[in-house]
């Protein structure tokens, strides 16, 4: 026994240190720029207003929403790489007509992983669906999921500044270190200047059912993307086999923007990530950075949930399903109960609780910044 403990101990310590994680500092949290009045104003421009229209696949609203996303990233965040994943399909109400389902994939990764080619970086994957339900007529889906899409746009703009700074600094440090060991050829072996960790935003299409929710009448975009990603093969030497494996965590935002949400921790396997986000919410509240009135419970109220309490009940069918079936770790940020306005004509801009929308933007952004930092200090 004694012989075994000696070699095992360092291994154990190593695995503990690589999983160690540094909470983001208070100064950093305070420095997160508050969402501007113009970002989430429901009438005038900004991130959200252009999305408060019906966005049914195969209609002009779908195209308008797509253009809004593409214009925003091209104009404000040209470093984020936009790509499409398209499919078509019939629905129970399309009379045999093929409808287009068009997912947007928007990526930002370290310059050194980009140089090495696809399959090099892992991605914190932040997801919302942008389509809206075909009924009731004129349905907007402000919480479902216009607001989550706008929150992801705010997040991208906010984290970009920090990522650009961090990656430039890491590259400088790596260049300086490589000059120092000039002449030592073995050390010149390709070494990444920092962790191979990026962010990708998935704006998914065709989440809603056209008639009633079944396995085939729902999740049109997500099912197509997950299947395609699993069937894509990267070159043999790539660190990741396919885009599905590059998902380090699949964070799905849905039905956010009503007052007083309570979001359970759905999966034991990602409870650690839920706890991180809940801790950030707690700190932001304590620092009086959040605007929403404190209800009886915080948004993320199950940080203390014990292993035995994960029963498998309360699972909510949503865009994560085809990804989870293929092994992705999922953090599902969706309230239970659903907002009162769910799937009614009242799920519109006027019924959003702006303080909650802005608070979610801050919480998810803080989580993302901390995630990127975690990976930096974790190696
Ligand atoms: Zn819905």
From TrEMBL:
What GO annotations for molecular function exist for this entry?
A: glutaminyl-peptide cyclotransferase activity; peptidase activity; zinc ion binding
Ordered alphabetically, the record's keywords are: Acyltransferase, Hydrolase, Metal-binding, Protease, Signal, Transferase, Zinc
UniProt entry tagged with the keyword Signal: yes
The signal peptide stretch is 1-20
One Gene Ontology term of the biological-process aspect is: proteolysis
> Peptidase M28 domain: from which residue to which, for each copy?
121-367
Q: What is its EC number?
A: 3.4.-.-
Top-level taxonomic group: Eukaryota
Family membership, please give it.
Answer: Belongs to the peptidase M28 family.
Q: Which PANTHER family match?
A: GLUTAMINYL-PEPTIDE CYCLOTRANSFERASE, PEPTIDE HYDROLASE
Q: What is this protein called?
A: Peptide hydrolase
From which organism does this entry originate?
Answer: Podospora australis
Taxonomic lineage from the root: Eukaryota, Fungi, Dikarya, Ascomycota, Pezizomycotina
């Amino acid at each position: 026994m004694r012989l075994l403990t000696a070699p095992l101990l360092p291994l154990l310590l190593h695995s503990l240190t690589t999983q160690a994680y540094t909470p983001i500092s208070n100064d950093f949290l305070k420095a997160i720029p508050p969402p501007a009045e113009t970002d989430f104003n429901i009438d005038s421009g900004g991130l959200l207003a252009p999305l408060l229209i019906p966005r049914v696949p195969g209609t002009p609203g779908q195209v308008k929403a797509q253009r809004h996303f593409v214009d925003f990233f091209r104009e404000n965040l040209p470093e984020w790489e936009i790509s499409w994943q398209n499919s078509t399909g019939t629905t129970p109400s399309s009379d045999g007509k093929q409808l287009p389902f068009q997912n947007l994939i928007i990526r930002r990764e370290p310059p050194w992983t980009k140089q090495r080619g696809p399959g090099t970086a892992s991605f914190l994957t932040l997801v919302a669906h942008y389509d809206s339900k075909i009924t009731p007529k004129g349905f907007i889906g402000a919480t479902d999921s216009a607001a989550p899409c706008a929150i992801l746009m705010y997040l991208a703009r906010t984290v970009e500044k920090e990522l650009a700074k961090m990656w430039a600094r890491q590259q400088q440090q790596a260049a300086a270190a490589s000059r120092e060991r000039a002449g030592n050829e073995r050390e010149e072996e390709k070494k990444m200047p920092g962790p191979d960790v990026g962010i990708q935003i998935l704006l998914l299409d065709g989440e809603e059912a056209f008639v009633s929710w079944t396995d085939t009448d729902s999740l049109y975009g997500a099912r197509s993307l997950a299947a395609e990603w699993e069937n894509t093969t990267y070159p043999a030497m790539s660190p990741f086999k396919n885009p599905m494996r590059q998902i380090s965590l699949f964070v799905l935002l849905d039905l956010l923007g009503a007052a007083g949400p309570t979001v359970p921790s759905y999966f034991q396997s990602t409870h650690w990530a839920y706890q991180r986000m809940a801790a950030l919410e707690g700190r932001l509240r304590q620092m009086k950075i959040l605007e929403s009135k404190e209800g009886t419970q915080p948004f993320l109220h199950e940080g203390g949930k014990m292993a035995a309490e994960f029963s498998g009940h309360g699972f909510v069918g949503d865009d994560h399903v085809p990804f989870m079936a293929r092994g992705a770790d999922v953090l599902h940020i969706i309230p239970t109960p659903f907002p009162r306005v769910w799937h009614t004509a009242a799920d519109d801009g006027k019924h959003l609780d702006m303080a909650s929308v802005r608070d979610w933007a801050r919480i998810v952004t803080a989580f993302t910044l901390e995630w990127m930092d975690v990976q930096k200090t974790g190696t």
